[in-house]
Amino acid sequence: AQSVTQLGSHVSVSEGALVLLRCNYSSSVPPYLFWYVQYPNQGLQLLLKYTSAATLVKGINGFEAEFKKSETSFHLTKPSAHMSDAAEYFCAVSGRNAGGTSYGKLTFGQGTILTVHP
Amino acid sequence: DTAVSQTPKYLVTQMGNDKSIKCEQNLGHDTMYWYKQDSKKFLKIMFSYNNKELIINETVPNRFSPKSPDKAHLNLHINSLELGDSAVYFCASSQGLERDTQYFGPGTRLTVL
């Protein structure tokens, strides 16, 4: 079974500062990992995903994440925060069984609320 | 052109009632999902259909019954609504099961009084 832990339910940064949102996963098979963003009263939008190609993944809005197998981490970063980045961010792992067969289930972390101060 | 749409956006109802939430996707995807987001924003999958076949049925009370009339639609019917059913329900779709992006609808906020 897969699981995801997001460290820090709230992160606050100043506009222009580095954004770092932490995600650690647990998976018995090589994982597929995703970061989604949710703006208030909206659905989830994909920021980026790791599917066993390059370990450094670039996404939309200047975000990127690095898959580190040794640390079982997939932290999300952005060099310079913008006010429009304020939202809730979810890390997720795609469900696969021991044989590697996927069944499409996304297991989400608890979410991290990002606040950006002027 | 909304990719994944849900109706209604808000649903307020009394305990014991039966209600349905509809979901439609115009992306040509073959897989659709229902997720529940509780008051603490925790997201958990409920059901998944692939080519109209149920492939994921998490430990959801049997008061919840998904129905997929075709690949573009996945509706959620809830019988005998309880207070604990109050949540935001999200529909999503993807092409395939594994590494493919799931596209989410805007959500339906269900409030049970």
Task: Tell me what the structure shows.
The complex is a heterodimer of chains A (118) and B (113). In chain A, the strands form 2 sheets. In chain A, strands 2, 4, 5, 9, 10 and 11 form a 6-stranded mixed β-sheet that branches. In chain A, strands 1-3-8-7-6 form a 5-stranded antiparallel β-sheet, with no helix packed on it. Chain A contains no helices and 11 strands. Chain A is 0% helix and 58% strand. The termini of chain A are far apart. Chain A is an all-beta fold. Chain B has 113 residues and is mainly beta. Chain B has no helices and 11 strands. In chain B, strands 2, 4, 5, 6, 9, 10 and 11 form a 7-stranded mixed β-sheet that branches. Chain B has a 4-stranded antiparallel β-sheet with strand order 1-3-8-7, with no helix packed on it. The model of chain B has no long low-confidence stretch (mean pLDDT 91).
Number of strands of chain A: 11
> What coarse outline of chain A follows from CA principal-axis ratios?
globular
Give the fraction of residues assigned to helices of chain B. under 10%
Order of helices and strands of chain A: EEEEEEEEEEE
User: What is the oligomeric state here?
Assistant: heterodimer
Number of helices of chain A: 0
